[in-house]
Amino acid sequence: MERTSLKKAVGSIGMPEEMRGRILEKCKMKIVKNEEEKTMKNRKGFRWQAAMAAVLALCICLPIAGVAAGNSGFFRDVMRGTAVVGTEYVQATDEIAADAAYLNGELRITANFLIPDEFPYRECEELAVGSYRIMTGDGKNVAEGEKSENAAIRNGRAVMRLPVEELDSGDYTVRIDAFIGSKKAEQPLPLKGFWECSFAVE
Fold first, then answer.
1. What is the CB-side half-sphere exposure of residue 147 using CA atoms within 13 A?
2. Which one of 13, 34, 40, 115 has the fewest CB atoms closer than 10 angstroms to its CB?
3. Which residues pair with 76 in a beta bridge?
């Protein structure tokens, strides 16, 4: 039988109405099921995205709330590559009050622990000024350094001396990025924050 004749013969075979109805019904059910699965998948994706958005919002809001609450200090590991090489205490700005005065050719920094009975302040025996910068009233750098000599802490207070050359008369500012607390037989502990003290030279 030739191909065209075979095609005509197959085309002439009729499909019973019952079979046609069952096939159509199965097709409709399959389409509905696919749509439901797609909707559920989208809902799950939406829930997951909503949950992630909530987590991200919380992660952003918590530090902001911390800033509003006064930035309590906390410990952080100091890393070198993947190795922990020490510890530092950060956000100490609101836990140490600093003042500066230029007397007899030297700059004296007075630091007062505002919570001297709390850890880590109660453990510190000596204190030094860490990273600092001295500027004129118009913002010009006149001196900077990494560490002063240690000074004894008495009643939560220490007075440190910064080595500076003779300064001309005028208004100055010293910016301090860290103090360094120390205790005998212990590794020094950087106490990081931001302190800005104004002083005048007569």
1. 13
2. 13
3. 88
Contact between residue 93 and residue 195 where contact means Cβ atoms under 8 Å apart: yes
pLDDT in tens, 112-137: 999 999 999 999 999 999 999 999 98
Question: Could you please report the per-residue DSSP string of 113-147?
Answer: ESSTTSTTGGG-SEEEE-SEEEEETTS-EEEEES-
136/100 Cα distance (integer angstroms) = 14
Quote the distance between the C-alpha of residue 144 and its chain's center: 27
Q: What is the pTM for the complete model shown?
A: 0.63
Say if residues 160 and 195 touch (Cβ distance below 8 Å). no
Q: How many residues does the chain have?
A: 202
Vertex 201 angle, CA 197 and 202, to 5°: 145
Sequence-distant contacts of 10-18: CB under 8 A, at least 24 apart: none
